[in-house]
Amino acid sequence: MSALYGTYARSPLAFERGEGVRLFSQDGTPYLDFHAGIAVNALGHSDPHLVATLKSAAEKVWHTSNVFTIPEQEKLGQRLVEHTFADACFFTNSGTESIECAIKTARHYFWAKGETDRYEIIAFTGSFHGRSLGAVAAGGNPSYLEGFGPPLAGFRHLAPGDLKAVEALVTPQTCAILIEPVQGEGGVTAMSAEFMRGLRALCDKHGMLLILDEVQCGYGRTGKFFAHEWAGIEPDIMAVAKGIGGGFPLGACLAKGEVAKSMVPGTHGSTYGGNPLACTIGNAVLDRVLEPGFFEHVERMGARLAWQLQQLQQRFPQYIVEQRGKGLLAGIKITPPVREFVARLRDDHHMLCQGAGDNVLRLLPPLVVTEADIDDAAARIAAAFEAIEAETAAKATA
């Protein structure tokens, strides 16, 4: 019996090594990885630059404390500021912690201005912002809230897409709007550029802050550095994680200077967040994603994946209801139970992917994926559907 908490429905499959977009199990079997550690392994497995950087960093200081200056953190922060809307950042270990920092920053901004009753945040159904008490309250999913006592107050939820409905929820207590430009866990739903621009306009109209959760959809996954760039807008605060560390635990909360300035000593902190080892890896990841042509490659591969999924939908209309997502955060809503289909792909076709809300098959390949890899993935998905067809036909004639 495992000594671990039973919070995961784990497969017995275990991996020993990885290379590019493939993982190898302990018996040497290769698996096509369209899971990427839930969008974490942006550069795939064993990227030479990351491996060399980690080996070098392992011989230096791993951890000190944020009571000291950390040059690697200063460097990474400056680079992120130079390439985004932000003027300041706070480093964390995870996306959940980045969301917590974003919530605290927004509320503290208004508190420091003397608007102490202005703490409510409008958020959206289908969202996933993490597993802490604050993050699950922000997400509002009843199944994640159940059993943990009263949810943290100050969040109001509605379905995304209707700007008039969003504005109807605004009160004198509203301080911010929080949204994922592309929902991942909730069903791979991409927000329209018009809706995102409308939210920015609402925030400007009512003096609110726009908080974006780009933990999963950011860091190049949609074909731009961050997904909000497709709408031509800027947030006031943004939570980042997953791809930022390429597999190493790292996250960040980015904010405009005026918004972040009230976060003075004592308002927030982290023991491990932004330590030397994490930020050294973060800088190495940034080296790669900022290389000329990297985002263009992701955009091309996203288009290839979308085309292949469209072909699959035309071929298997009885199994594929809808195509969703953007770039290399892609999904298809299917009729077979998604958990069973994920297991079928894993066990019978040696392909790793993940389910999402609303019975969606979620595809999150490393950003270094090639056309050949995408074509391979489509062939494996097709084979899985063909197997279901054959089984159904056999039952019908039995």
For the structure shown, list the relevant keywords:
seven-stranded mixed β-sheet; about 400 residues; four-stranded mixed β-sheet; about 40% helix; alpha/beta
What can you tell me about this protein's structure?
This protein has 13 helices and 17 strands. By secondary structure, it is an alpha/beta fold. The strands form four sheets. It has a seven-stranded mixed beta sheet, sandwiched between helices. The protein has a four-stranded mixed beta sheet with strand order 1-2-3-15. It has a four-stranded antiparallel beta sheet with strand order 13-14-17-16, with helices on one face. Helix 11 (294-315) packs parallel to helix 13. The protein is globular, with a radius of gyration of 21 Å. The two termini are 40 Å apart. The mean pLDDT is 97.
